[in-house]
Amino acid sequence: QVQLAESGGGLVQAGGSLRLSCAASGSIFRPNVMGWFRQAPGKQRELVAHIFMGGVTDYADFVKGRFTISRDNAKNTAYLQMNSLRPEDTGVYYCNSRPYNSEWPDHWGQGTQVTVSA
């Protein structure tokens, strides 16, 4: 099973920036897709962005132009650079990893809290 460790969250004012990191370890599928999700209080977890090993990316509409996902394949690590943060970006951010042509597994790390104040 893959172990996922997220870090980099914190409290920031609206308009600010944060950079999240996700380190994957254990039984890592290759090739794989790494993704960032978030869950706001009282809401379901939603996909924010994902990136294939070759670098192809995709973003949810609500973060396009503000967030950038990247990865370091040698380190099995994914990053999420978040700029122009808004209060509605507040939530717990999780990462996940899956093989190509597969569903996201229901296996999560502890996540990292992001709080954006108005």
Give your account of this protein's structure:
The structure is a single chain. It contains no helices and ten strands. It has strands spanning 2-7, 10-13, 18-26, 32-39, 46-52, 57-59, 67-72, 77-82, 91-99, 112-117. The N and C termini lie far apart (39 Å).
Helix content: under 10%
Structure classification: mainly beta
CA-CA gap between termini: 39 Å
The low-confidence runs, each spanning 5 or more residues with pLDDT under 50, are none
How would you sum up the major sheet? 6 strands, mixed
Radius of gyration: 13 Å
Pattern of helices and strands: EEEEEEEEEE
Can you count the beta strands?
10
What integer is the average pLDDT?
Answer: 96
- Overall shape: it is globular
Please count the helical segments.
Answer: 0
Strand order of the largest sheet: 2-10-9-4-5-6
| Residue share in β-strands | over 45%
Put the structure in a nutshell.
By secondary structure, the chain is mainly beta. Helix content is 0%, strand content 54%.
How are the secondary structure elements laid out?
Layout: E1 2-7, E2 10-13, E3 18-26, E4 32-39, E5 46-52, E6 57-59, E7 67-72, E8 77-82, E9 91-99, E10 112-117
Q: What features would you highlight for this structure?
A:
single chain, 118 residues, six-stranded mixed sheet, four-stranded antiparallel sheet, 54% strand, globular
